[in-house]
Amino acid sequence: MSGHTVLHDDQLGVDVDLVRLLLGRSAPALARMPVRELAASGSSNALFRLGDDLLVRLPLQAGGSQSIRKEARWSPYVAPHLPVPCPEVLLVGDPGAGYPEHWSVLRWLPGRTPSGGRPGAGARPRHPAAGRGARGPGG
User: Fold this and answer.
1) Are 69 and 92 contacting, i.e. CB atoms less than 8 angstroms apart?
2) Nearest to 42 by CA among 62, 55, 57, 52
3) CA-CA-CA-CA torsion sign (70, 75, 76, 78)
4) Do 42 and 58 touch, CB atoms closer than 8 A?
5) Contacts of 49 (CB under 8 A, 6+ apart)
6) Cα separation, 101 vs 118, whole angstroms
7) From CA 68, how far away is CA 61, in angstroms rounded?
8) Which of 20, 104, 107, 26 lies closest to 58 in space, CA to CA?
9) In Å, how far are 2, 4, 21 from 11, measured between CA atoms?
10) Radius of gyration from C-alpha coordinates of the chain
11) Helix, coil or strand: residue 97
12) Which residue blocks in the chain are alpha helix, DSSP H?
């Protein structure tokens, strides 16, 4: 079902057709937009471009709904305090069409896929508590 690289023994099958089905159930107007799978997806979620301005994120393993719902709940509170832009969650879709997890539609952030280097190197949190707990042992 998926052109996505298999990373987990229990990986859920996802593809463009599934994205269209899920969108058709939750957001019919979005289902008419072009969808394409992104080559650069993470190990937890498959990523699909939706038109020019949106992204669909589907968990690749059972239990992924928790992180989708948590991101939607907390992003509006945390994002303004981070040193980098964060995608805005526009919709959390329900499981359906044989897919057992919640999924999300986010606003696309233009840019490029990071390569090499330490994530966040040189970035300083705006809020003093934002960086706490992010240091390694003895740091």
Assistant:
1) yes
2) 57
3) positive
4) no
5) 34, 35, 36, 38, 55, 56, 108
6) 32
7) 12
8) 104
9) 10, 10, 19
10) 16
11) coil
12) 16-26, 28-31, 65-78
What pTM was estimated for this model as a whole? 0.75
Task: Please say if the pLDDT value at position 117 is more than 80.
Answer: no
**What's the rounded Cα separation, in Å, for the pair 88 and 129?**
22
pLDDT tens, 15-68?
999 999 999 999 999 999 999 998 776 678 889 999 999 999 999 888 889 999
* Alpha carbon distances (Å) from 137 to 32, 121, 133: 50, 18, 10
Residue type for position 125: P
Q: Are 124 and 83 in contact (CB under 8 A)?
A: yes
Q: Are 27 and 91 in contact (CB under 8 A)?
A: yes
Burial of residue 124 (CB within 10 Å: 0-12, 13-18, 19+) is exposed
Distance, in Å, from the CA atom of 139 to the CA atom of 135, rounded to the nearest integer, reads 5
